[in-house]
Amino acid sequence: MPPPRRGIDSAEREREMAVTMEDDNGYFYLRYDVGHKGIFGHEFLEFEFRPDGKLRYANNSNYKNDTMIRKEVFLHRPRRLPSHRHRKRDHEGR
Question: Were 68 and a residue from 12, 37, 60, 63 both cysteine, which residue would form a disulfide, CB within 3.0 to 4.6 Å?
C-alpha cells in the first residue's frame, strides 16, 4: 500500500488520485485528494478506502478558524441484502 504523501506543494496537491489494484489477492486501495489555496489558506478534502474496510476522511479549512476534521469508520459487508420483493411485502402488511 502506498504511504500517505505529505509535504506536497499546493499546485501538485490540487488534484491527486491514487488507485492500486492487484488481481491475485483482491487488494484494492483508493485515495482521492482535491484542494486549493484560497483566501482561507490551504483547503482540501481527502477520502481513502482501504482493503481492510477502513474509510478515512479529512477536511481542512481555515474558514472561521476551523481546525482539520478527521473521521475513520470501518465498513462491513452486509450478510444478506433483502430483495425488493421482501421489502415490498413488509410494507404492505402494516
Answer: 60
